[in-house]
Amino acid sequence: MKTDDLIKALDADARSKAMPLRSAWWLAAGAAALVAAAVFMMTIGPRPDFMVAAHTVRFLSKFVFTIVLAISAFALIRALSTPGAATGRAMAAMIAAPLLVAVAVVLELFMVPQALWSTRMIGSNMMICMGFIPLIGIGPLAIFLWMLRYGAPTRPVLAGAVAGLLAGGLAATFYAAHCFDDSPLFVATWYTIAIAALALLGALGGRFFVRW
């Protein structure tokens, strides 16, 4: 069978599922958000001064970064789960979140004295960040990997990594409501490492669980 014929057959199979793939992905996203919310609320919960912090730019910027990452990863993983779907535009959109973080870091370096750079980057909760973003995100990652099996990705390792980024963006959005370290220097360092860990787990899951 030619490659094009195989892709068309996989696409037809994905479309013939009991629930349309597009609807299934939205249902999976809702379920993942509920799982992440439950883990977050049963463990650390929002910071006590959440309403006060919500009036500061640094605090709100964390949610901009994480939500943009989650939205762009969601668009890409939906495309990757459908054989033959165009992924170029969704792939290019993945640069949005890192670019926003990079701009925020540059602005922070200009606004904060150099003597405080390392203090802002290390913060006071880096170990909590490194532990709880993966903890909150592991359930959503499992849901997204299962959804990839529901579809028919032709690049399972890449799709799995994007599932990890999506789970990481979702988990980091919840964790940001607890985190007392609002500096972009902290976010760019520790959020990135924690989300990258989920992306690595997702890639491994794609390699061994999603492949066909």
Automatic annotation (TrEMBL):
The chain crosses the membrane at residues 24-44, 59-80, 92-112, 124-145, 157-177, 189-210. It comes from the Bacteria. Keywords: Membrane, Transmembrane, Transmembrane helix. InterPro entries: NrsF. This is DUF1109 family protein. It comes from Mesorhizobium australicum (strain HAMBI 3006 / LMG 24608 / WSM2073).
